[in-house]
Amino acid sequence: MQSKRDRVTSIDIAHLAGVSQATVSRVLNGSPLVNVETRRRVEAAVRELGYSVDRRASNLRLQRSGTLALLLFEDPTSDDSHINPFFLAMLGSITRAAARAGYDLLVSFQQLSDDWHADYAGSMKADGLILLGYGDYLSYRGKLEALVAHGTRFVRWGAVLPDQPGLSIGCDNLQGGRLVGEHLLGLGRRRIAFLGDASTHYPEFFDRYRGCDAALQAAGLAMDPALQIDAQSSEDDGYGAARALIARGQPFDAVFAASDLIAIGALRALAEHGLRVPEEVSVAGFDDIPAARFTTPALTTVAQDTSSAGAMLVETLMALIDGGPAASRMLPARLVLRQSCGER
Amino acid sequence: MQSKRDRVTSIDIAHLAGVSQATVSRVLNGSPLVNVETRRRVEAAVRELGYSVDRRASNLRLQRSGTLALLLFEDPTSDDSHINPFFLAMLGSITRAAARAGYDLLVSFQQLSDDWHADYAGSMKADGLILLGYGDYLSYRGKLEALVAHGTRFVRWGAVLPDQPGLSIGCDNLQGGRLVGEHLLGLGRRRIAFLGDASTHYPEFFDRYRGCDAALQAAGLAMDPALQIDAQSSEDDGYGAARALIARGQPFDAVFAASDLIAIGALRALAEHGLRVPEEVSVAGFDDIPAARFTTPALTTVAQDTSSAGAMLVETLMALIDGGPAASRMLPARLVLRQSCGER
DNA sequence: CTGAAAGCGCTTACAG
DNA sequence: CTGAAAGCGCTTACAG
Predict the structure, then answer these.
(1) Taking a C-beta distance cutoff of 8 angstroms, is the pair A297, A280 a contact?
(2) Quick check: A122 and B85 CB within 8 A?
(3) How far does Cα A134 stand from its chain's mean position?
(4) Which of A96, A98, A153, B214 is 20 to 30 A from B13 (CA-CA)?
(5) A15 and B138 in contact (C-beta within 8 Å)?
(6) Of A108, A124, A150, the CB nearest to B56
(7) Is the model's pLDDT at B303 over the cut of 90?
């Protein structure tokens, strides 16, 4: 960052303090071997010249990078700045967790189709990867296997699956779906539509669907496949899916959207068709993004604990890097009641 | 990222291809000197062993880092995951712009009070810094001067001020304020309250205030200091400021909030006091965050072009790094009409 | 066109 | 407690 002739190195400090460069390094690394007086002289020199260790060199020597890479990928959209707000909240908590752990965080947006595995791991730019983003799991899975084969340390945010390559931290989507199902049942709703892909391609959404179904089954009911419409996590998809649902002409009294973005789009479509929420149709989302508080009516949704999630992702990745024991884990989901489902 | 014994280096490639390590490096850097046949052999070896260049070593040798650091700081709140959505949008566009320019992006959240200048620049972790965040400019200014003195390359997002240390890219806040003022006047509003700090401590907010004032002055009116209440960019501050405004008992027919977050808080306070928006009071914000579309009524606000902003920040920083000419610049503001101000 | 060698700025056994 | 030296994995003048 400085002009080249200015750049202060540990040798300059050594000269100024009248010691060897090795001793400067020892002081800077808090070695207990150094004499108190020597240490003081070195520290004074460091302050005087405003020196700080060159991390590139230090990391090269230590065979580490001191950096974690966060790869945020989005499947369909490459639309600038329209990142799912939920992931942005995750990004915030991951950044803080990494900083607390003494790691820098490299952030990169990727297309799911990109060749992201070699880039960070292989080039030693990062000690480990955090993968964030929903996409078609079945096409994504192969890349995870490549990462594993390559010896890359990584943790993925998403559904915890039995035979998955690598580890993941995720919300208990099954439980979240069940909470929504039970809530809607308690409100007297019976014909619950689901907006979102519900297949093994999108395990997070699928679990939400199945959780809701489980709640219905416990009451002797079941989700009706005729009321399920595919949608990815975007407002436009939610809008389109809700319109498609209405066009089907099947009666429904509730909409469970696989994400808040989908729910927001659905709210718009419902309003356009004169369907009153929550009087005629209950609507629930998933994620509790900031905008969920401001929709009309305010959206009942399932909150994932992003703050713990970030900490847990970093924690697990660090365990992997340090060779300690590490395992996939699920975080509890929490129902957030607002107005879009109606009074209990 | 690999276990140590596995790590492939350029020497392994050299052995396999039967050339010197220097030649491998030449091939990887696209040197025109290399014989076609030799190049092919090396490339085959690279593929076979799945090699990629160790960027730490390469950067050390080249005396660069290939990395830009984005320092996002927030003044009052250290509250997890409650980052201003506007900055998150900026983060998205900066990340993409950095990637397009071939730079990695290191992201870090900082407290304004932290000692952030030495950390990235001095330690050669980044070739340049992008500073993002509003805070008390007067206390912040000293740090900028330290960066300049230190020879650090940086670009700041914020107001372009005449005598500022370093460069900045910012929205034309004065113009944005003027647009709001003119719009409110056109709606017949005369007593416009301003929620947000309006002093040299917060130049962005101050410019928005002065822009609005300029519009009033052009009509022979002026902002009334009795209707200005300090607030930082948060919903809570906006709520508190609007309550304080109401408590003052001075009549007002419009609220210009210095940011959307403030506006959203104000909307809540106004609703609680039974003041109808937009019938009795017009409300306008600034930033056009995603949630602005979902408030009731939807928020009229001023959009900043985050997408160009990110590109321009990166562009300017790279010019600085390459020693080219670089200058502060302002981006135009754009009024986004929704329902919170009423019909024109 | 290619190789041997120096050097980027550190850390840490190895001697003393 | 301290110094001289090796080495992390590259890039690039310098010779040939």
Answers:
(1) no
(2) no
(3) 9
(4) A153
(5) no
(6) A124
(7) yes
What pLDDT does residue B115 have?
Answer: 65
What does the pLDDT average to over A89-112? 86
Which CATH architecture does the domain made up of A173-305 adopt?
Answer: 3-Layer(aba) Sandwich (3.40)
Six-digit token string for B81: 């995951």
Distance from CA of A44 to the nearest CA of B (A): 17
Q: Strand C closer than 7 Å to the CB of A7?
A: yes
Q: Which residue has the higher pLDDT, B118 or B276?
A: B276
Q: What DSSP letter does each residue of A221-275 carry, written as one string?
A: ----GGGEE---SSHHHHHHHHHHHHHHT---SEEEESSHHHHHHHHHHHHHTT-
CATH number attached to the domain at A10-53: 1.10.260.40
pLDDT at A115: 65
Question: Closest nucleotide (CA of A23 to C1')?
Answer: D2
Read off the pLDDT of each residue in B96-120 and give the average, rounded to a whole number: 78
Contact criterion met (CB < 8 Å) for B2 and A96? no
Contact residues on chain A for B1, CB-CB shorter than 8 A: 120-122, 124, 126-128, 150-153
Which of the nucleotides lies closest to B124 (Cα–C1')?
C9
Which residue is nearest nucleotide D9, judged by alpha carbon to C1' distance? B57
Does strand C come within 7 Å of the CB of A124? no
Q: Band the pLDDT of A155: cuts 50, 70, 90.
A: very high
Query: Would you kindly state where each structural domain of chain B is located, as residue ranges?
Result: 4-53, 67-169+306-325, 173-305
Superfamily name with CATH number, domain B67-169+306-325: Response regulator (3.40.50.2300)
Q: Which residues of B touch A106 (CB under 8 A)?
A: 67, 104-107
